[in-house]
Amino acid sequence: MLQELSIKNFAIIDHLDVAFKNGMTVLTGETGAGKSIIIDAVGLLAGGRGSANFVRTGTDKAIIQGSFIFPTGGTTYRVLDDLGIDHDDGSVILQREIHANGRNTCRVNGMLVNTSTLKRIGETAVDIHGQNEHQELMQPEKHLGMLDEFAGAKVAKLRENYGQIYRRYTQLQSTLENRRTNEKEWAQHLDMLTFQVNEIESANLQPGEEDKLVAERDRLDNYQRINDALQRSQMTLTGEETAPGVTDQLSSALQAMQGIADFDAAFKQISDSLETAYYALTDAVGAVSSQLDLLEWDEGRLDAIEQRLDVINQLKRKYGDSESQVLKYYDKIAAELKQMQATDEQADDLEEQVAAQETKLHEVGEQLSEARHHASEKLEKAIHAELADLYMAKTVFAVRFSRPKNEGLLSTGLDHVEFYLRTNPGEAMRPLAKIASGGELSRIMLALKTIFSESQGITSIIFDEVDTGVSGRVAQAIAEKISGIARESQVLCITHLPQVAAMADHHYFIAKKIVGERTETSLARLDSDARIDEIARMSAGTQVTKLALEHAHELLNLADETKKRQAKEK
């Protein structure tokens, strides 16, 4: 449920903080006071489309923040776990900033996320229905999804199975069609991949090989220079027949200092330093001698290195700027070649595979269709029961199935589904989208929401003036339906109907006023007396009479009795 909502610099709202509770909360006020603006703010927290137009004039950004709690093990927490977002304290804070330049910043529990991620989380937390939300009912392509949602786990499992087979079927069919229409291109591409794979394989390229070869080539190219330097170093260190080397001279100096080292600590330090230098120089002599022993000139090896480097450079010119890129390209084309060769081997029975997958699709599709038909019967009965409570007892609701003739197999199953309606006896059944009025759509949507409220797992449901176009006993019936939904989920409701307002557990009044030269929206929770005044105003209009106040008081008493009855029936 939504616990707290904070809005700053949003449209005509300067700063607004409100705490919500479970049950049914109504927001009322004059037209234009900003009721729907609050719902728009919640919609943005649920991942709705943002716009710089939402930012209050003269400010840099709008900030919206909502604090939510959800049932343990609920859908929202599973989504957060999938996304790696921490929720150890049991609460989730959604925050969104919309900047005047159009930039959006979204956070979930302090973690930066993109709008798509915010929407993925928000749609599990908040379900918003406004005056235009009935349009989902006006879109026949949405009806199949609504039926599947009602049908539950059995249909969901069959649809997933069907989807897996369908994806495999389309892959095979695409491969087959490509083979048929592009056989020449296929063969040419296969030959090219075979040549490239063989060329790279035969080169037996090794990571880091080029650097080692370049170093070895440079050593051979500079053989004479290296030999001269080593010879000169050895001669200087070891000496000649006519002159002692540095090593012998250092040895003499060491022996001299060792002879007087015991007479003074300074002499001892000099002796130790000479000894260290002597042994280091002796090691250097050994290293120079070893390098001279290893040094050899091999003109054949130099030619081999140049040829190998030429092979590597040719591969790099064709397939990548480095050895690693060449090898990466090799892995890619080797996998593609393997797949094409496998497809080539299977070419003879590819048509049989396509046919086999199509047969599987029809088998699972028929099972899915049967499960949907069974679910549609239950949905029709449930809708009729709900519509009867909403004074549409003579209305007939039906789920119609049809099989596409020229579209081929569908990704969702074998059937098209569309909702049909007959509002008056004696009339023909017609598509719901073509004959339902606004008031009828409101009630049908409310019937569906009542049926779905338990199964969806949504913890906060918002109705934005869905009662528009109704009055009298129908308004009372809608109020009772919304109150019934609030027993399963938190409900926030914007309404102009006193019957709906009276059924609420919590009542907020929204008003706008001029502060300085700016319009601001304020929100206040109404106590018992203030509720009576507001409901009377909703009933009577501008002139609140004593009779209107008595009627408001009666509506609240009747609402209390209705809620007690609902609790017993539950």
UniProtKB/TrEMBL annotation:
- Family statement: Belongs to the RecN family.
Recorded protein name is DNA repair protein RecN
**Its GO CC terms?**
bacterial nucleoid
Q: Which residues form the RecF/RecN/SMC N-terminal domain?
A: 1-511
Q: Name one Pfam family in it.
A: SMC_N
Q: Which UniProt keywords apply?
A: ATP-binding, Coiled coil, DNA damage, DNA repair, Nucleotide-binding
What is the annotated role of this protein in its UniProt record? May be involved in recombinational repair of damaged DNA.
A GO molecular function annotation here is: ATP binding
